[in-house]
Every structure is written in C-alpha cells, then in structure tokens.
Amino acid sequence: MADVKKRALITGITGQDGGHLTELLHEKGYEIYGIIRGQHNPQRARVEAEFPYLNLIEADLTDTSSLVRAVAVSKPDEIYNLGAISHVGYSFKNPQLTADVTGKGVLNLLEAVRMAGFEKTARIYQASTSEMFGGLEYNQPEGGYTEESSFHPRSPYGVAKLYAHWISRNYRESYGMFISCGILFNHEGDRRGLEFVTRKITNAVARIKLGKQEFITLGDLWPKRDWGYAGDYVEGMWRMLQQDTPDDFLLATGETHSIEEFLDLAFKEIGIEDWHPYVKQDPRFMRPAEVDVLLGNPAKAEKVLGWKRKVDFPGLVKLMVQHDLDLESK
Length: 330
Ligand code: NAP
Ligand code: F7E
Known about the structure:
Order of helices and strands: EHEHEHEHHEHEEHEEEHEEHEHH
Bound molecules: NADP nicotinamide-adenine-dinucleotide phosphate, ligand F7E
C-alpha cells in the first residue's frame, strides 16, 4: 500500500520560522499548506519561487471564517501556528493590533479547528516565547528559566503571547485537544527579518565591509539574549508534535550574550577589532520597558524530545555575516 503523506498547515509561512519549517517538513515528505494574508502580499512571489510545492491558502488570524476554510481545505494532521505580530518594539506602537493577532488570533484558530471538526485529530503547535518571562532579576532562576518559571511579560507582545499560551493550555485541558506550546528563546539566522537586532547588525556589517554603508544606529546595547539558530529550533517544534501526549517545552541554548558581544564577533568577522566608531545610538530604537537578561534551561526538551541545538553562538554570528556578505555582493 502506498504511504499516505502527512498534511501540515502552517501560519506565518512568509516569516523566518515558516521558511525553515517548510524546508524541514518537505524533506520529511509532508504535504504542506501555508496561510498567506493580504490582497497583495509582496512576500507571495518569493515564497512561491522558493517553495514551488507549497499550497497557499488566503487567510488571516483575525478572520475566523477564513481559518475555518483553511483547516477544512488542508485537512491537517499537524498545525503550526507561527503567525504573529512578532516585533516587540512594534508591539508598543500597535498594542491593539498585537492583541488581536498575536493573542486573540490564537483563540480564532483554535475555534476554527473545532468548527471544522478537526479538534480530535489535528495536533497543534503554538509558538510561545521567552518574552513571557520578562527577563527580570527577581524571577530569573539560577541556571535559567524552565517550563515551571513564573511569567512577567514586559511588552504588549509578551502579554498577548501569554494570553495565547494560556488559551492553548485551556483548550488542551477543556477539550482534550493535542496542543503543545514551544517556549522558544531568541532564534536567528539568514532568514531573520532585517528589523531584528542580530540581522540588522550582520547586514550592516556586510554593507560596511563592501563600502555601501558607514555606520549602524541601534538602541540599548547591554540587554542579553539566549540566541540560537532557527534551523535547530524548527526541528524541536516538529519533535513536540511527534510525542504521545501534548506538553510544553522550552527551547534555548543555555548561554546568554549581550548585543555588545554580538557586535564584537560580527565586526571581527570582517577584520574590524573595535566596532565603537561604527555604532551610533538613538532612543528611537529603545523600548518603554526592556527585557534585561534572558537565559533558558532546555533540559526537559533535551531529555524528553532528544533535542539539542547544533549551532553555537560564534557559529551563528559567522553564518549570518557570511550570508549577508554574499547577499550584499550580488
Ligand atoms: P516573523 O518572521 O516575524 O513572521 C511572522 C509571520 O506572521 C509572518 O509570516 C507574517 O505574515 C505572519 N502574520 C502577521 N500578521 C498576521 C495575521 N494577521 N494573520 C496571519 N499571519 C500573520 O516571526 P518568526 O521569527 O518566524 O517567529 C515565528 C513565531 O514564533 C511568531 O509567532 C513569533 O512571535 C514566535 N517566536 C519567535 C521567536 C524568534 O526568536 N524568532 C522566539 C519565540 C517565539 P506577513 O509576511 O504577511 O506579515
Ligand atoms: O531585540 C535590543 C532590543 O528585536 C533584541 C522576537 O523574535 O525574540 C525576539 O524579540 C534586543 C532588545 O528581539 C536595537 O531592545 C538594540 O533588547 O532583536 P530584537 P527581541 O525583542 O528579543 C523573542 C524571543 C520573540 O519572541 C520575538 O518575537 O536588542 N536592540 N537596538 C534592538 N532591537 C532592535 N530590533 N533594533 C535595534 O536597533
């Protein structure tokens, strides 16, 4: 008998993780459906060219009727909810939109799964985040946050994600749905949006090397993040949905580094030892409330899922600078 292909529905297909996950699931032989929004999405042509095997469905996390249709059409075995307003700084400027998409959008999706009649069969991944912890000194355990740590979100994004996290857990408990939340710490790479600090730096570094830019303007440089590689993290998402029972898992590297350390390595990659003359600061890129230090303890994911990150911090910076040098040389 011929193998029946597993079917996956992905929201956030045009984003960083959507790209990595599409690659991974295609390698694993899945039939993949991706939600694309907007009447003229400028990302559509790129996604169609990069993933010709992908089935695109027009839908939006704020429109439940479109989500019911997306679920009914794709008949998914697995749903990965990666769609969100994901930029923390932007969420301060558009807090209600962030609540509607990043928070209530998850409720809309879960209801759509029930309305379409897939609540007993579809396994769902919800993209939770380390931003729910808040990075404060008082709630930061020795050795890093775990799945049991207390939450204290510091932005409209973090608050919306906490609602999404709890409504997911509530639907799991109330309706017995298979919903696993991945509490992921920062993950980056060559698909990262230019609006995030790592990619903003590596792209600027490449342009400075090529004489296309003189300096980079950033906000605060002291915050620390637990930065991993996105390709490693989508593997963890997939593993969560292959378990016998749904649960929450934290993915992190167990190391934390400041933006200054990131600058150090990125500039060294192009032979510049002292980055200070090339970096300016502007309050426009600072946030009303900052997340100081994030450090995650991935012990549970390592033990239960057999997951381990492969790319380390210097490897990540190198990969991103080299990618941007290639890109900017073209
Ligand atoms: P990203 O690159 O910013 O992608 C976000 C995606 O959400 C885009 O495809 C975007 O589509 C889509 N989207 C925005 N508004 C939408 C709406 N109203 N309806 C449907 N889709 C919508 O994010 P990412 O880095 O891949 O992250 C994936 C998920 O993980 C997000 O939920 C993020 O919050 C979460 N997360 C990320 C990290 C990280 O370090 N990357 C860590 C923890 C959690 P358009 O292209 O049409 O705008
Ligand atoms: O900021 C500081 C900024 O925007 C990192 C999202 O994927 O990870 C991401 O959220 C740090 C912050 O990521 C600039 O203030 C300084 O302290 O790259 P970021 P983020 O806020 O950590 C979490 C886990 C998610 O869930 C989110 O979706 O860098 N910073 N100067 C700057 N940040 C930006 N963006 N731009 C600057 O110029």
